[in-house]
Design goal:
Residues 11-261 form the EAL domain. This protein is an alpha/beta fold.
Length: 599
């Protein structure tokens, strides 16, 4: 539930009675999209109900809190649910619909069972298109009773989502008991995620658990592109928030503008460091419609001896389940099995909430999702989609083979010590940064006095210093930056344009010193240097190894013909600088003057 509008400023004493609002059904419904950035489309809409405008009930949380205190929660939610479903049907939207349900309502004696199902049947809407989103608002609910009520809804074909994941203990316990189809990450963990390492660790853990249980994760309250970038890199499945659209009573009329905005957000996402899964891992197999019977599915499995599972899709080709050969045989393989179950639809025998991955997802994210499943499901095929629609099935063995081949290819191009990308990947990364036609910073980093240090203290200590540089740079770089190791003490760091570049480079040098100096003998640190032979065999004093940086600021649409030629001139100036840093701006027309650079 992501509606964060402030409560109306009207005097509460003049507000209409909530009982009158419920009886007269004075409820408005707004819809907010839930989007899939990988496919660049709208995945679902969440219905957000509001009471009369210019009253305290115009704010959703205020209205529901009052209903809870006045024992009107069940009738209020019934009205909201009816208005949401009928308005959604009137909009003729093809996506899923999320509706909020308070957990205690499912156990409230005033709650009338079957009303939602009857309404959907009258409107011709299948149950799997509706997602019941449970929001933890009241403590003291028996989790076991709650889980039993949820399983009842799941048995009727409804999809379940848990809201505000991580906000309270009860939601986590309920999550472990009911295995919901979707879990919503609380906005606390989304806000400023890109600037908070601890939050990223929590989100990574949530994702691993969710994907291991077959749940898909929706990040709520996304308001900044930097938050989206970070969530996208971590592997969140879907997103919701003001960055995409605010709640609207007429979402279809605003769809064209939303699609254009999503196209912009998708275009700015940089390609992940690992390649996408690719169609060669996806085995194209026919799917099963929701009207196919168990007997018909049995015949299809009989005609395809090497197929162990098939996807069940709705009329929009969106996967809603997976039917395995074992599940079919368990029904029809028994005596009188065909007579008893042959006419049943496959939806009664399928595994709901299948693991779905997009063809563009990075291999490492797909691997975490597949291998994170339970042991009994780990070897089962997974569903492959494109723009959320079914294209085929994926096999674990094919995925692992592809991952192995990619790792071998990367290892061939990596520096053997630091395992960072080597010369060829660095050249490719430079081409990618230039091709994006955005300003960026190309940094050449050199470890000063490394050779005499290596000769004086040995290769073991020298290798450790190089690893310290690699770890420092990798820790300090941003999520879309690139780090490579040319060899020896030479590194390349490509940065997105930064406002305080000088401050960042200074912090980077300081971080290396903080990591490196504790390894040195006390007297070397005290003297801030050491005695060693120079290139002429003469004993002399050398300062401690220092990371010098030559940073070339490249404007959008411009680039030198050879970064190597520029860097070779720049790094000598950086070494001579007192602070070991040189920041310049590329300017092609002044190539003959001052090496084509302007300070």
């Amino acid at each position: 539930m992501t509606d964060t509008l402030a409560p109306a400023s009207s005097d509460q004493s003049s507000a209409p009675a909530l009982s009158d609002v419920v009886r007269e059904e004075r409820i408005d419904v707004h819809f907010q999209p839930i989007v899939a950035i990988r496919s660049g489309g709208v995945f679902a809409y969440e219905a957000l109900s509001r009471g009369p405008s210019e009253s305290i009930y115009a704010h959703l949380l205020t209205m529901f809190e009052a209903a809870r205190k006045q024992s009107l929660l069940a009738p209020l939610e019934a009205v909201c649910r009816q208005h949401a479903i009928t308005a959604w049907a009137a909009e003729r939207l093809d996506e899923l619909l999320f509706i909020n349900v308070s957990p205690e309502v499912l156990l409230d004696p005033q709650h009338r069972n079957g009303e939602t199902l009857r309404l959907l049947t009258r409107l011709g809407i299948p149950t799997h298109r509706l997602v019941i989103e449970l929001t933890e608002q009241s403590p003291g609910i028996d989790p076991d009773l709650m889980a039993e009520a949820v399983r009842h809804y799941q048995s009727m074909g409804f999809t379940i989502a848990l809201d505000d994941l991580g906000e309270g203990y009860a939601s986590l316990r309920l999550w472990s008991q009911i295995r919901p189809d979707f879990v919503k990450l609380d906005r606390h963990f989304v806000s400023e995620l890109d600037r908070d390492y601890v939050k990223r660790r929590f989100v990574r853990a949530f994702l691993d658990v969710a994907h291991g249980m077959g749940s898909r994760v929706i990040a709520e309250g996304v308001e900044r592109e930097e938050e989206l970038d970070c969530l996208h890199e971590l592997g969140v499945d879907y997103y919701q928030g003001w960055l995409f659209a605010r709640p609207s009573p007429t979402p279809k009329a605003e769809r064209a503008a939303l699609n254009e905005h999503l196209a912009h957000l998708v275009a700015r996402q940089k390609s992940p460091s690992q390649t996408g899964m690719g169609r060669h891992i996806c085995k194209v197999l026919p799917s099963l419609g929701i009207t196919v019977t168990v007997a018909e599915a049995s015949e299809r499995f009989s005609s395809m001896a090497d197929v162990g599972a098939m996807a069940v899709v709705d009329d929009q080709a969106i996967p809603i389940g997976v039917l395995t050969r074992e599940a079919v045989m368990a029904l029809v393989g028994k005596r009188f099995g065909f007579d008893l179950h042959g006419r049943d639809p496959v939806t009664k025998a399928m595994h709901v909430a299948p693991l779905c991955v997009e063809v563009t997802e990075p291999l490492d994210q797909v691997s975490r999702k597949v291998t994170g499943r339970g042991i009994d499901q780990r070897d089962e095929p997974f569903v492959v989609t494109q723009h959320g629609r079914y294209v085929g099935m994926g096999q674990l063995v094919a995925l692992l083979q592809q991952i192995t081949e990619e790792k071998v290819a990367i290892a061939r191009q990596a520096n053997p010590l630091t395992q960072l990308p080597g010369n060829a990947p660095i050249r490719a990364a430079l081409d990618d940064f230039v091709g994006e036609r955005k300003p960026f910073v190309a940094c050449y980093l050199d470890l000063d006095y490394f050779k005499p240090f290596n000769d004086r203290f040995g290769y073991v200590m020298g290798d450790q210093v190089l690893l310290d540089v690699a770890v420092t740079l990798d820790t300090m770089k941003g999520q879309h930056d690139f780090l490579g190791h040319l060899g020896g003490g030479d590194f390349v760091l490509l940065l997105e344009s930064r406002e305080d570049l000088h401050g960042f480079l200074a912090a980077l040098q300081q971080a290396f010193v903080a990591r490196f100096t504790p390894r040195l003998p006390v007297e070397v640190v005290r003297d801030n240097g050491f005695m060693a032979q120079d290139r002429f065999g003469q004993e002399r004093f050398f300062a401690l190894p220092r990371l010098s940086v030559a940073a070339l600021c490249v404007p959008a649409g411009q680039a030198p013909h050879s970064f190597g030629d520029y860097w070779s001139s720049l790094k000598q100036s950086a070494k001579r600088a007192v602070n070991g840093r040189l920041v310049v701006r590329f300017k092609e027309e002044t190539l003959a003057s001052k090496h084509g650079l302007t300070l």
